[in-house]
Amino acid sequence: MANQLTEEQLADRRKKNKKIFKIIGIILVLSLLARLVPSEKETGAAANNTTKQEEAQKKEQAQKQKLRLDSVIEKIKIDKDIKTQTVEYLADSTLKIVLSPVKSEITAAGFDNLYQILDIGNVSEIEVYKKNKKESSFGFRTQAIVDNFKKEFVSSYDGSCSPVVDYIKEGMNDPSSFEHVRTFVTPILNGNFEIKTVFRGKNAFGGTVLNSSYAEVSPTGSIVSFKMEE
After folding, report:
1. How many domains does the chain have?
2. DSSP code per residue over 2-15
């Protein structure tokens, strides 16, 4: 008959069993974590696969954009109402359109309105030429120039152009009567801006009248020319 263990021996055995179970538990947890956590090789392979997928998607998107742009270019070339001489896509993402000198007064913005060229993604600027002279430009580069000018000289409150407003007030009978209505900012090919300002003010007889003015303003805010609309 086996000897019975004393209380002290039983307690000691229980303590040893706890240690063994604890060690086994730690080993099992570590083994499970090792399976769950990908190895450096697996991580690298997964990252590489993701990069390849992204590159493939970008390549596919670029190809689709090119096909769409090629299609638009062909449509512009055969548009009987516009009459183009050449349409070419340049390395700096510019779409250069040379119009026939005989017919068509369409602008770069007009081309984008007709064909949604900038929405394709490949073109950053549309330039229209006639008789080897650039007549208009429209796109992200042009817009960036306009945005910089507006940030510096156009009020975010009412849209008025500060150097033009100051110039108008200097010539008014009652500068305090000036009331801004609306301002239009248009970039000019020489690098300046045409500013049309619609405003109200008192005339020499004290009556409030609606006026419009046109000013050519340099990128630094200087008034190059000014005239009132008749």
Report:
1. 2
2. PPPPPHHHHHHHHH
CB 84 within 8 A of CB 105: no
pLDDT band of 39, cuts 50, 70, 90: low
- Residues 140 and 126: beta-carbon distance below 8 Å: no
CA distance linking residue 209 with residue 173, whole number of Å: 12
106 domain-assigned:
yes
- pLDDT above 80 (res 49): no
Q: Give the model confidence (pLDDT) of 57-83 as tens digits.
A: 888 888 898 999 999 999 999 998 889
Q: CA-to-CA distance for 75 and 195, rounded, in angstroms?
A: 34
> What residues pair up with 209 in beta bridges, in sequence order?
201
Do 160 and 183 touch, CB atoms closer than 8 A? yes
- Asked if residue 185 has pLDDT above 60, the reply is yes
**What does the CA dihedral 165, 170, 175, 179 come to, rounded to 10 degrees?**
-20
Task: Return the H-helix or E-strand segment holding 23.
Answer: helix 7-36
Of the residues 139, 162, 177, the one at which a domain ends: 139
